TrEMBL record:
Needed co-factor(s): Mg(2+); Mn(2+)
Chief localization: cytoplasm
Site (Transition state stabilizer): 179, 240
BP GO terms, sorted: acetate metabolic process; acetyl-CoA biosynthetic process
Region of interest (Disordered), residue spans: 22-42
Organism: Nocardioides islandensis
Keywords associated with the record: ATP-binding, Cytoplasm, Kinase, Magnesium, Metal-binding, Nucleotide-binding, Transferase
UniProt protein name: Acetate kinase
Signal peptide per UniProt: none
Function as written in the Swiss-Prot or TrEMBL entry: Catalyzes the formation of acetyl phosphate from acetate and ATP. Can also catalyze the reverse reaction.
GO molecular function annotation: acetate kinase activity; ATP binding; magnesium ion binding
Enzyme Commission number(s) of this protein: 2.7.2.1
Biased composition range(s): Low complexity: 22-32
CDD domains documented for this protein: ASKHA_NBD_AcK_PK
Length: 406
């Protein structure tokens, strides 16, 4: 029986796809369609280490996914021969309802639609991807895998904002957390690298990509995370501010006359590294910093300091920490951030070995000295594998249940 899942991650103007073996994580092909809806778009299909590019217009998500399927037919591998068993969709917000992946039906679609006010940029695009895939693969199970689901294990003390009851009860105002699929994969891989079962280890996961979050994981379950009701809260990110005084909205509105939408957009799109250094790409920030740019130097310091603050907070939340784990673009590639964000923590048993930190990262890699109480690791994340794994296991559970039904 095949265990291949077609993983689809739809954004408002992009669509990423991968063919992934949900059992082994092997991915024979993956690709993306960028600038959907614009006059010129770009499809990139990678197979056997070779990239095939098509530059043309993709008017909508339907044409983008059709083009991806054509790319499988033209450049391989054949989806028919692979025997795809499910389509796995990344869905950003699963709200209070979804604590696990869900087999898509009209009820699930209605629930994801109802969550659009909590994720106005992401959920509509995710729904679009699901609608198109249902049309193109009417006979395949479609599985929604939610970014928020992993954090359902947070206790009320961690997820509750100190705001009036009516807001919490009637408007689902609470912390949800994101990057759940990455966290699930990375925490499990870190436990495996430590040679222990996930239920036995307590880790702090630092997912530092364009979006960034810190998560406290006790025994394989999230107990706190830095992103909140939306992905704006917490660490400094590419274009998001992370934590600011909540009174900032009122102040900017009163003093500049800005609308709430203007302020929301500015905090999500032109803050973070972009606001501090003028660029959201971490590599560019590091280049500017090396050239003596004061804004980029401050950006690096604010970025690393915020991470250190959360590591301290989550150390206190967990009580004991077996490992601190870095992942995603910046976490996997910036020894400077890893060293700076964990500096001065040796009394907590956390330190970074400079040679190991500067060395190559190939799979889970230890960068702490052997003598350290707390392991520090770099683990390349693999969200596509995690989505495929979860989708496959849901489909197999369903299959087993059908066999067991008398
Ligand atoms: P992600 O969202 O995980 O793709 O991460 C994107 C971020 O990782 C961007 O800010 C990139 O600049 C950063 N990044 C990627 N490669 C490197 C690298 N070699 N060194 C530093 N930052 C990097």
């Amino acid at each position: 029986m095949s265990s291949f899942v077609l993983v689809v991650n739809t954004g408002s103007s992009s669509l990423k796809y991968s063919l992934v073996d949900g059992a082994s994580g092997d991915s024979p092909a993956s690709g993306s369609v960028e600038r959907i809806g614009e006059s010129s778009g770009r499809l990139s299909h990678e197979v056997d280490g070779q990239e095939h590019v098509e530059e043309r217009a993709f008017p909508d998500h339907d044409s983008a996914l059709r083009a991806a399927l054509d790319a499988f037919a033209a450049y391989g591998p054949s989806l028919d021969s692979a025997g795809v068993v499910a389509v796995g969709h990344r869905v950003v917000h699963g709200g209070e309802r979804f604590s696990a992946p869900a087999l898509v039906d009209d009820d699930v679609i209605g629930a994801v639609e109802a969550l659009v006010p909590l994720a106005p940029l992401h959920n509509p695009a995710n729904l679009e991807g699901i609608a198109v895939a249902r049309k193109l693969f009417p006979d395949l199970p479609q599985v929604a895998v939610f970014d928020t689901a992993y954090h359902h294990t947070m206790p009320p003390a961690a997820y509750t904002y100190a705001v009036p009851l009516a807001w919490r009860d009637e408007h689902a105002i609470r912390r949800y957390g994101f990057h759940g699929t990455s966290n699930a994969y990375v925490a499990r891989s870190a436990a495996a690298a430590l040679g222990r079962a996930p239920e036995e280890v307590d880790v702090i996961v630092l997912h530092l990509g364009n979006g960034a979050s810190a998560t406290a994981v006790r025994g394989g379950r999230s107990v706190d995370t830095s992103m909140g009701m939306t992905p704006l809260e917490g660490l400094v990110m590419g274009t998001r501010s992370g934590d600011v005084d909540p009174a900032l909205h009122a102040h900017l509105h009163r003093s500049l006359g800005w609308s709430l939408d203007d302020i929301d957009t500015a905090l999500n799109r032109s803050s973070g590294l972009k606001g501090l250094a003028g660029d959201n790409d971490f590599r560019e920030v590091m280049r500017l910093r090396a050239a003596g740019d004061a804004g980029a130097a401050l950006a690096f310091d604010v970025y690393s300091y915020r991470i250190r603050k959360y590591v301290g907070a989550y150390y206190a939340v967990l009580g004991t920490v077996d490992a601190v784990v870095f992942t995603a673009g910046v976490g996997e590639h910036s020894p400077e951030v890893r060293a700076a964000s964990l500096s001065g923590l040796s009394r907590l048993g956390i330190s970074v070995d400079p040679d190991r930190n500067a060395g190559p990262v190939d799979g889970p890699t230890f960068i702490s000295p052997d003598s350290a109480d707390v392991a520090v690791l770099v683990v390349p994340t693999d969200e596509e594998y995690e989505i495929a794994r979860q989708a496959l296991s849901l489909v197999e559970e369903g299959r087993q249940a059908r066999h067991e039904t008398p």
